[in-house]
Amino acid sequence: MPKILIATDKPFAKIAVEGIKKVIENAGFELALLEKYTDRQQLLDAVNDANAIIILSDIIDNEVISAAKNLKIVVRAGAGYDNIDLQAATAAGVCVMNTPGQNSNAVAELVFGLLVYGARNLFNGSSGTELKDKRLGIHAYGNVGRNVARIAKGFGMTVFAYDAFTDSQKIESDGVKSCKSAEELYAASDIVSLHIPATAETKNSIDYQLLSKMPKNGILVNTARKEVINEPELVKIMEERPDFKYLTDIMPSNNAEMSEKFANRYFSTPKKMGAQTAEANINAGIAAAQQITDFFQNGCEKFRVN
Length: 306
Ligand code: 3PG
Prior knowledge:
Layout: E1 3-8, H1 14-26, E2 30-35, H2 40-46, E3 52-55, H3 62-67, E4 73-76, H4 86-91, E5 95-98, H5 104-119, E6 135-139, H6 143-154, E7 158-162, H7 168-172, E8 177-178, H8 182-188, E9 191-194, H9 208-211, E10 219-222, H10 231-240, E11 245-248, H11 255-261, E12 266-268, H12 278-298
Parallel strand pairs: 1-2, 1-3, 3-4, 4-5, 6-7, 6-9, 7-8, 9-10, 10-11, 11-12
């Protein structure tokens, strides 16, 4: 009987855990739960006899994979899998999957939570700005990007997008203006919302050269990954341009410096909250559990990423 471990530093909503439990137990599998672990050894101990692991942004590196002697599959209940060492997993014969699209509305809604808060000067009592009639640039038009476009239209924004891997016709068919390059997108947008994954190509790619294309009163909102930002160059542009705002759901390494230098135009959530809704936890958690039971029962490897 396969043993499935939920290992989440940032726990799923209780209702999502109950849903996952139902799927796992209906399949006749065993469920173990490790939540809010405070030190790495707890994770290393918990994976020891697990055949499958469900995680969020939890780090699954070579050490964790080596400690999990019976591991067959890891499912990241979410989109980005940059927290998993794919090479180590492949070398150990471990299948890695994600659950694309399952938490994307939650992340997209948070973009607007951050934007309203930022556009109103962090509710500091001063007069802010509205989102209506502003130009929003969506950098990468995947599941989250598409949801951001849908919501932006409700705010009365004009929506642009750039995605190196999505056909421009597909973007335009959503009533979104397709840009040919990141440079064109940044130049056309009052606000840019980042939805690129953290890869070797994208790390540090949001830099001075790109950000300097943005018009006056530009706002950059990041619910993607902190690694895509060139942090020293973001500081440089914010020092040069007192009109520029940065809002993020992923605390930068230089959070203390940013908070001190850019009061009222810099905000980071204390912990990444984009996908932390009951709905997203249920959708992604149950999808992960179903993908695992389908993997063991039918050999199904749909959503495999390694
Ligand atoms: C994702 O990659 O699915 C999102 O960034 C959300 O990540 P989280 O589940 O770790 O909050």
